[in-house]
Amino acid sequence: MSPRVFEHAPIDFRGMPPAVKGLIIANVAVFLLTQLVGPQFYTLFGLVPARVLQDYWLWQPVTYLFIHGGVWHLLFNMFALWMFGVPVESQWGTREFLKFYFICGLGAAAASLAMSPHSVVPIIGASGPIYGLLVAFAMLYPDAVVYLWFFFPIKASHMAVLFGVLEFYFGATGSTPGIANFAHLGGMITGYIYLRWWWIWKIRAKAVMGVSRGEPFSIGIKRPAPRAKTAPRQAAKPPAASMDDVDRILDKILTSGLGSLTEDEREIMRRYSDKTNH
Q1: Could you tell me if 38 and 126 lie in one domain?
Q2: What is the reported pTM?
Q3: Residue ranges making up the domain that contains 246
Q4: How far is CA 223 from CA 123, 132, 193, 266, in A?
């Protein structure tokens, strides 16, 4: 499969896809509200592990994603959301993008709760899902060149690995106090697990369940309309669908979307679904 490329246009708020635009608006609005309310806003809506686990403040694993501690914290996260979120949402669509974003945010929260269950220090910021988006971007565009800290060119796939190693090191050594490194790492791991295993498993499950109900396997692919009957002719029997072919096509769906499949690949998936029903 040939590598895909993309180009970022200059930042144009009106041209942003809806999910990225909506998240930026929400984060800026909550930041302004935080400045009006004061520090107690962090305690009430940030992620405080002790409050979540002991007092069941179950809104915090979601609300903490919209709270930032300062202008630079907000600007850096929103810039990263634009940089990685625009191409990912453009590939997946708004619904799948938002689902992935909040799943990564919950994964980051779960990692924080597991690592410091008794902490009363609020954890804030959208970094968890943004690190998840970095993983998604690296899987979609592994050879894309990103300028690390605006100066050092690096491939997106290498950048994702580098950041994962750094976050683990900083979290394990405690060398960056005040930064929730395990939340960042939790967002990355959650994003990778979701994309590498859960999404493909879901596609396979839909294929099997669809066939068990007597439905044709299509994964969003429409069959052509029936043609007028013609004189019968002997058709060559297609080869059996191998698991190597199925795995390759599922990986292609994961990285390139359903629209990238050729007619031969669609036929292989239909034969695979037929095979699972026998």
Answers
A1: yes
A2: 0.71
A3: 216-221+238-276
A4: 49, 35, 32, 10
